[in-house]
Amino acid sequence: MRRTTTLRTALSTALLLATAALGFTPASAATATGSAAPAASAVSARSSDSPAPAASRLSPGLLTALGRDLGLTEAAAADRLRAESAARAVEAPARRAAGAAYGGSWFDAGSGRLTVALTDRARRAAVEAAGADTVLVRRTARALDAAKARIDRLDAPAGVASWHVDPEANAVAVNVVDDRRGDPAVRAFVERARQAGPVAVRTTGEAPRTFAAGTVGGDPYYTGNVRCSIGFSVHGGFVTAGHCGSRGAAVYGWDRSYVGTFQGSSFPGDDYAWVSVGSGWWTVPVVLGWGTVPDQLVRGSAEAPIGSSVCRSGSTTRWHCGTVLARNETVNYSQGAVHQMTKTSVCAEPGDSGGSFISGDQAQGVTSGGWGNCSGGGQTWHQPVNEILNRYGLRLHTA
After folding, report:
1. Among 50, 182, 229, 371, which one is most buried in terms of CB atoms within 10 A?
2. What pLDDT does residue 373 have?
3. What residue stretches are annotated with the Peptidase S1 domain (predicted)?
4. What are the residue numbers of the active site?
């Protein structure tokens, strides 16, 4: 790429020197115009359990952003990040201890611990010994997943926004658009869903939409007349949203210089893609903080439990935070349903599509779509990054 090469070489050297000691630290810088580092590249997942970050590794800017969006003090934000990191490490062993009685899990912000739902009281001691709290429920996660799979086979009308397994409710949550809940087609879908399994009907403010945009300024990438945002660097390119471009489409950077091409893309059904990079562009394990927070280093891709905090970086609205509301949700866009999505309370707007979702220093996914905006609030879904890496055999670029 052809952008302040000398400056960026120095910044890359500084990044390499800093990564041994720092976790959430600046690793790239914006130019005088506010534009940020070039395209990332695509590689495969390192999904090992992550240790709780030390206080010295928590960026003050990240704590400020979490405090702003979640209503926390800086000290409370730091405590929450450490608790969430510990919960991520507990989730896998707790699930193994639960065995066939596993009914799902989530991070409880009140207790600061992971909660695991169980259908068998006899498994409580083993799960609690692994470090999680427990609650007894009627249905296993396997039974709920099977019910959701049956609902996935139904044709959903436009007034149905999405559906996912809710482990706290021990049911499949079906989200309908508030002013469409009385529509005959919506009511018929809900009835068919109830025949497929236990359903909890909820309302949402708007129908979901994708967040691609026409050509506008900022620090994006472009394909045709569409502007989207880079997700995460992988070795050889970057991952992003599938609705941003089809396989073989040329990709251009913020300065309209050629970056590479879409090597794989899927939408609807999925919403993921990867772009190979060349022509002087290179990849770094960084998520842009846009001056709101320092640029964030990416150290892995351990999936955050439901209830955890998560932040998003995109080329339109830049840096915003919220919490994970649901995993494995099916989202009913106008173009068709997209499966295995993660729902968050983070806002987004057109042009943010494809951008990074990160929890602490762990990559989570690429922005797909949602409803609302960053003035009045809303919800946004991301396609989990580990699914993308596994699908294309990529390796995540980590610090």
Report:
1. 229
2. 96
3. 217-388
4. 243, 271, 353
Q: Pick from 22, 337, 306: which is nearest to 166 by CA? A: 306
Three-state DSSP class for residue 346: coil
Cis peptide before 268 (omega within 30 of 0): yes
Contacts of 144 (CB under 8 A, 6+ apart): 103, 104, 165, 167, 170, 171, 172, 197, 198
In angstroms, the CA 292 to CA 310 distance is 15
pLDDT reported for residue 387: 98
Q: Which alpha helices (DSSP H) does 116-225 contain, by range?
A: 124-129, 141-152, 184-196
All structural domains of the chain:
1-95+208-399 (2.40.10.10)
The string of pLDDT tens digits covering residues 171-223 is 999 999 999 999 999 999 999 999 999 999 999 989 998 876 543 233 689 99
Of all residues in the chain, what percent are helix, strand and coil, respectively (each to 5)? 25, 35, 40
271-291 pLDDT, tens digit per residue, is: 999 999 887 888 889 998 888
**Structural tokens at position 357:** 């979702």
Whats the size of the chain, residue-wise? 399
Neighbours of 20 (CB within 10 A): 7
Q: Hey, is 162 helix, strand or coil?
A: strand
Residue 375 sits at the vertex; the CA angle it makes with 33 and 112, to the nearest 5 degrees, is 100
Low-confidence residues in the chain, pLDDT < 50: 1-51, 55, 214-218
Q: At what angle do helices 141-152 and 184-196 cross, to 10 degrees?
A: 140
* 342: nearest Cα among 379, 376, 287: 379
Residue 321 phi/psi, 5° resolution?
A: -130, 165
